[in-house]
Amino acid sequence: MALDLGGRILRSRTVAALASPHGIDRYLTQINPMLAAHEVRARIVDIHPEVSAPGAPRVATVTLQPTSTWRGHRAGQHVSVGIDTGEGRRTTRVFTVSNTESKPGDPLTITVRAHDDEDATPYSISKYLTERATVGTLVHLSQAEGDFVLPHHVPEHIVLISGGSGITPVMSMLRSLQRRTHRGKVTFLHWAPSAERQIYAEELEEIRGQGHGVDLHIMHTADGAPYLSPALLEKLVPGYRDLPTWVCGPESLIEATQAAYDGTESLHVEYFKPPRSGGVAGGEMTFSTTGKTVANDGATILDQAEAAGLSPEHGCRMGICFSCTANKSSGLVRNVLTGETSELPDEQIRICVSTPEGDCAVDL
Amino acid sequence: MTTVEKTGNRRLTAEELEAFGAEMDVIRQRIVADLGEDDAAYIYNIVKKQRAFEIAGRSLYYLPVIGWVPAVACLSISKILDNMEIGHNVMHGQYDWMGDPDLNSRMFEWDTMAPSENWKYGHNYMHHTFTNIVGKDRDVGYGILRMDEDQEWRPYYLGNPIYAFLLMTFFEWGVAMHDLEVDELVAGRRTWAENKEIGARILRKVKEQTLKDYVLFPLLTGPLAPLTFAGNFTANIIRNLWTFNIIFCGHFPAGVASFSQEECEDETQGHWYYRQLLGSANITGGRLFHIMSGNLSYQIEHHLFPDLPARRYPEIAEEVREICERYDLAYNTGPLHKQLFGVFKKICRFALPDRKSSDAAPAGAAPAIEEVAA
User: Fold this and answer.
1) Which of A20, A123, A363 to mutate to test the interface with B (most CBs of B within 10 A)?
2) Which fold would CATH assign to domain A283-362?
3) Separation between Cα atoms, residue A26 and residue A11, nearest integer Å
4) Among B48, B97, B125, whose Cβ lies nearest the Cβ of A30?
5) How many CA atoms lie within 13 A of B34 on its CB side?
6) What interface predicted TM-score (ipTM) does this complex get?
7) pLDDT tens digits, residue range B137-169?
8) Which end of chain A, C or N, has fewer beta carbons within 10 A?
9) What is the largest CA-CA distance in chain A?
10) So where are chain A's domains?
11) Does any domain span residue B154?
């Protein structure tokens, strides 16, 4: 109660006015980085290796104790994680929260596979988290975001489909359903390369053993398991097209699922990686602030800006964190996530998920 | 076609300008490749010190009588650090590479009346792009003062020293109002509509700044409120005096060149560097002095490389100086009192119409380099 009162005072307009223009968090963090009124920061309290098969990238589950400002998450949501990976540079990447739904201030876990990120300096954040981070390391978080969540009233029978690391949001859903003691049926289909590279293998075995309405199908492609197809779906989940379904994974899995569901509204999609932007090339891409102009090659504006030698502010590179928001002064852009186009002048756009179509000018 | 200027500056040939520019680019690339933990640690340390001085300053007001002077001192230091080594440099994008939103040029707001968004346009874009081009760089006289002989004399300028004194005392207000371009508005070259958003931002910022310094913090000290009010006012004025003097020493001492719009048309990168170099002046001093001036005591290096972390300017300066010697270019530097005297003389001299003996180069020719008429 007293803590809550303190929090309310720290978040009050009077305190904001006193701390102006820097904000109260700028002062609190100097005292203790785990003190915050608005921002979310967290300390790593546990790192648990999930997979360390030879030749395969490491996977680890990292448990984070957030500041009291953490508002909790719904199963399936993601969070931006910012961390100083060396050379004084902070890198921000998005990870799905993998534990059961959390309440304000609760610890959360993310399950990270070590990737060689394209612009990692000097370490990619996933490599840092799986190989170098230690208990006690401080990270910067966003609040949980995303609409890839279960409804509050979970239908009688649902289908969860995931591939590779795309299992994390789906796993959070499954774990949450078990905690909620969901009475209905869950069909869970998962594709992984091999048994050695299977994340959460033990826990999945346990769930399979328990029964409790979870129908588990794990396909290991290296062992000759079939890929996702309408026939396979019909065999495993008869009438699947009418069942509420959540799918998360690489682009190929998403595409196969979308084709199998053929436009029914029961399908909820989360890309594990954003789709490759095959935009429309042609016209000129102008970066007004620096006065640079390049031929529009159809890539995202962020990619084109970087190719032109600029280094615009950016974070997740998948349209989530808004770090790369810039003013588009003119031109037609397409949002590669939604396919929506927009032609409004002087519009704030996220350059990492926008491709120009024809002439376009952005203040960079 | 090498001509020697009266101050010892040589006009460089096109080839020399290109080579000179290439040498500057090499310095830049080397520093960019070397940015890292030390730079991050440095700016974090400065931020930590600034916050500590601010908290100390705000707290010391609670000690009646003996607390007031140290409170004002701490708060002045805090505001100077916030504006110069942190605010000015962060908003130049010097620390954007760190990826820390607190130190990002797009998000930073500073403890002064001028809203960062307005200032970045007037300063980063207008002033740093068109440095010392008379008629384009609005920092030449700030639309108030006559600081160059290419600005035509009018009887209004008789008040030059008075305007300068007022601008110095209320510098943060001057900087805030600067972006409204009131002189352009009066001349009819600018519309009220263009100023609407800029003005709204100023109003909002002024409200925030006055509320905390002149209402909330004084009220928090209860019966000592009038003293706190006076202390905050004094700290703001001290910061104003300091920043004005450092900034005026960067562009207006004797020996600084100004340029005409014609000679900067179709400018090459080499000429851009050349203009930045000759249009700026440094101040010599100790390490603490450089930190307190946001390293704008290395104004030359700042103008050559505005987006490199300012703590790098001292190491860059040695190389720049050596390059200047090889190209026979003046490297304008001197102790604070000397540079200030040069500024003061200019303010007074340009209050009056030009003397007949003035043999300035005609517009469109060589850079009109001020004669050191000591």
Assistant:
1) A20
2) Ubiquitin-like (UB roll) (3.10.20)
3) 13
4) B48
5) 13
6) 0.87
7) 888 888 899 998 888 999 999 999 999 999 999
8) N
9) 65
10) 20-145, 157-271, 283-362
11) yes
